[in-house]
Structures are given as structure tokens and as C-alpha cells.
Amino acid sequence: MARVSLIIPTFSRPHLLERCVESARRAGAGVEIIVVDDASTDETASVCRRLRDIKYLRLDSNRGVAGARNEGLRACTSEYVGFLDDDDLRLPNSIDAQVDLLDAHPEAGMVYGRALYGDEQCLPKGGSYPDGCPQGDIFWELMEWNFVPCLTVIFRRTCLERVGLIDESATGVDDWDLWVRISELYPVLATEQTVAIWRQTTAEQYSYRAERMHRRAHRLHRDKWLRLPRAMEADEERRQQTSKAFSDRAAQQMISAAAARIRARRGMDAMRLALEVMRLYPRAAVRHALRASVGSPDVYGV
């Protein structure tokens, strides 16, 4: 039996799938590859039939990435699990190295690493994320911002018995939600090594999706994460500090994105995003504007 199951959700992108599956094969010895077809309407099914040694699941209706990941989780039996989007790549032997770390630290719930930024062909184009890889008790840090690239994580399947499956209402930030819930109960390991290539989509593809993700993250932070038992047991100062840091980071990123849209001559997109940041994070947006007005450096380069 394979020790690691790698779940690959896919929807109508058969031209990318074979490359992704091949990278998963090279990433570790005896990895179970589960491809979850989210009701594709093209030749994805026939492409998957040609791929050797995969477990192929086809959904009857489109449920989004979070729903497809859950079906993969229900189908896997391995000790460890990871996710890989169909346009991203795993680096050779990267999974084996992460499994060795988890084997050496049975108290840990998951391990993550760095991802190289990739171009449209998923070739490294310079740079990686994150710059630093905090480990150990990172619950409060993850409550402030997601620095864990989903495609780099391997986690213990037994964690799901305590934290539950993917939250399907949180598509786009469902991985972040899972990392928060795991880190509440388990130490997290990290490797400074790059373990994957993260394909970067164009700004046009990302525009509306980014705003939906910010809205979902805002809802999760307010209505779910701050109500987790560990957060509820913390003092009010700690909770307020976390909320302020989360709001500042979100507002800064949204304002930075709006400025990039102005530079790209997409004024209506920029205006829409500016209105959204004022609706979600009015105080943080004002703080950011005041810092900018007095010439304080901004970590997002606006």
C-alpha cells in the first residue's frame, strides 16, 4: 500500500494534466495518484484513461476544487496526503523527503516547503514563496496570513479525524482553512527546500477570483477561526492583535492589487477592488493610506 496519496482535482484542462501527473510520479516512491475529474465537459476522461497507474474519480456535477478534494480524501487510504492542482508541478523526490520528516516527528500534523514561481508553461521564472518557513506552533501566525503554499504540503490523514474534511463553502481559501485547523492541534514542520513549481496565472484570470477569495477569508476569520476553541481561550488582547494583523495584511494586498490594475490601465477593476477593501477593512485601509501619505515604506511596493 502506498504511504502517500496525492490528490489532483481537474476541470477541463486535459492539456495540462499529463505533465502534472508525471511530476507526481517522480516526486516519491509508490505515491498513489488520485485524479478527481470535477465533471469536465471535454476530453479529460479519455486523457485520464490513457494515464497509467492512477485512481480516476469522475464527479457527476461540478463541485469546485474544495468538493473535488473532499472526494479524493474519501477515496484515499494512505497514511499521508497532499494536494496538487492540475497546472502545478511537484519536484523530483520532494515527497519522500517530507515523509521522512513526518516519520521523524510523529507529533507533527503536517509539513510544508517552498514553491518556485512558474510561468505559463510552469517553468521557473525566478523567486519562490514563502521567504521564511516558520514551524512548530504556527497557529497564530496562520490566523494572520497564509504563508503555506497548498501544493507543498503533506499532512497526516489521521488529522482529519479531529479537524474534519475540507470546508466546501471556502473554495479558494479551503486549504488555508485546513492549515489553520490542523495547526490549532498539531505542531507544523517546514523545510527550506523548494518542493514544487507554482504556475502563475495572468492578472485577467485572477481578477474576480481574488476578490471572492478575500471575501471568503474575511468571513472565515471573523465567523470561524476566531471561534475555534484555542482562539476563544486566548485573552482579548491576543485576539484583537490577530484581527488587526489580518486586516492590515489583507488591506495592503488589496490596495497593492488595485494599484497594479491602475498601472495596467484597468481603472474600473481598480475602482471595484478599492471599494471592496473599504467595505471589508475600512480602518485598515485608512491606516494604510495614512502611512503612504507620510512616506512610510509599504511591504507590497505600492
Describe the 3D structure.
The protein has 302 residues and is an alpha/beta fold. Helix content is 48%, strand content 18%. It contains 12 helices and 9 strands. It has helices spanning 14-27, 44-50, 64-75, 94-104, 139-144, 160-163, 174-185, 203-223, 229-233, 236-263, 267-280, 282-293, and strands spanning 4-10, 32-37, 55-58, 80-83, 89-90, 110-118, 124-129, 154-156, 188-199. Strands 1, 2, 3, 4, 5, 6, 7, 8 and 9 form a 9-stranded mixed beta sheet that branches. A hairpin with a 5-residue loop joins strand 6 (110-118) and strand 7. The protein is globular, with a radius of gyration of 20 Å. Mean pLDDT is 91; it is low at 203-207 and 295-302.
Report the C-alpha radius of gyration, rounded: 20 Å
Summarize the biggest pleated sheet.
Answer: 9 strands, mixed
Structural category: alpha/beta
Please write the CATH class name of the largest domain: Alpha Beta
CATH 2nd-level architecture of the largest domain: Alpha-Beta Complex
Give the CA-based shape: globular
Overall structural domain count: 2
The chain-level mean pLDDT equals 91
Order of helices and strands: EHEHEHEEHEEHEHHEHHHHH
CATH third-level topology of the largest domain: Spore Coat Polysaccharide Biosynthesis Protein SpsA, Chain A
| Low-pLDDT segments, ≥5 res | 203-207, 295-302
How many beta-strand segments? Answer: 9
Instruction: Give the helix tally.
Output: 12
The first-to-last residue Cα distance is: 51 Å
CATH superfamily of the largest domain: Spore Coat Polysaccharide Biosynthesis Protein SpsA, Chain A
Percent of residues in helices = 40-55%
Sheet-strand content, in percent, reads 15-25%
